[in-house]
Design goal:
Helix content is about 0%, strand content about 45%. It is an all-beta fold. The longest helix has 5 residues. The two termini are about 25 Å apart.
């Protein structure tokens, strides 16, 4: 997800080894270390680790593709499907055309349709075109811009999560003004939920939980936090100390796993996975030639 305007893009390389959340961890018997079930936190943070248990969500209306995969969009406007067991399948270039904009985030609805946020990517002299959100059909790649418009300097993270255990769902956003909001997908109007002090991407699930992936100001690497959907407050947090986000990052959730897409510093992205139940981070399990700035999976995909 997030990156500055095109003129400001710059990022260092990230590491490339299996990582744990704690410096000392038990062995799982196959030579791979397993993280402690209570990951390290910032000193005196007072925030608990994320609960790794799973609930039984309503799977009505779900199809096999939605249950086992997610979509990613690159800064260049290419859409791909990522299946954890087999990798990426390129779907093609999205049929949207904006002279000064490029994708900056994406959310995937329960039916598999995508909503792509278009942010200003090129400095414009004399005027400041607004940001926009488009509906994208992942099969035909057809693009339909919604009525949403935002300020030209807006950057957001976005994602759906179920209401209760489903099957209905709500689209949430985190924006540069530091607000967690819901976004009505009929009128495309935001309703502020609460304030947050970071800009992160969003992933949800069929269990109605809401997570964000971001780069903390006061700790190395990155973090996944669970948010209270009624206040925006961080209620639990797992640090991923060995996984910097770089200037572009995104994630989605399938089952007990988060799949994390981060800048490789060379114009592409790497994929890492985080097992929420076992608290194990696998770094760089896959790669993608484009800079992934948005990702999403249907609420059918988890838990």
């Amino acid at each position: 997800m997030k990156r500055a305007l095109a003129l400001l893009l710059a990022v260092g390389a990230v590491g490339c080894s299996r990582s744990q959340l704690d410096t000392a961890s038990p062995n799982d018997g196959d030579g791979a270390a397993v993280a402690d079930s209570r990951p390290r936190e910032r000193p005196d943070s007072g925030i608990q680790p994320i609960d790794g248990s799973l609930a039984d969500a309503d799977k009505s209306g779900c199809d096999d593709a939605s249950v086992s995969s997610g979509l990613v969009v690159s800064m260049e406007g290419d859409l791909a499907r990522y299946v954890p067991s087999s990798g990426f399948t390129t779907l093609g270039a999205i049929g949207c055309s904006l002279q000064y904009h490029s994708p900056g985030s994406m959310a995937v609805a329960r039916d598999g349709g995508a909503f792509v946020f278009y942010e200003l990517s090129t400095l414009v002299a004399g005027h400041a075109p607004p940001t926009e959100i488009a509906r994208v059909d992942p099969i035909s790649l057809a693009c339909d811009f919604t009525s949403y418009t935002g300020p030209s300097d807006e950057r957001i993270g976005m994602g759906f999560t179920a209401n209760g255990l489903g099957p209905t769902e709500t689209l949430y956003t985190i924006d540069t003004d530091g607000g967690l909001s819901t976004l009505d997908t009929a009128k495309f109007e935001k309703s502020l939920v609460g304030n947050v002090d970071f800009l992160g991407e969003i992933a949800g699930g069929g269990d109605g939980r809401l997570f964000t992936f971001f780069s903390p100001d006061d700790a190395p690497g990155s973090a996944i936090a669970e948010l209270d959907k009624t206040t925006g407050k961080v209620i639990a947090l797992d640090h991923l100390f060995d996984l910097p986000t770089g200037s572009a990052w995104a994630f989605f959730r399938v089952g007990a796993f988060f799949f994390l897409f981060t800048d490789d510093g060379k114009g592409g992205s790497t994929v890492s996975s985080y097992d929420l139940t076992k608290k194990v981070l696998d770094l760089h399990v896959d790669s993608y030639p484009g800079r992934i700035v948005g990702a999403g999976a249907s609420s059918c995909a988890s838990p």
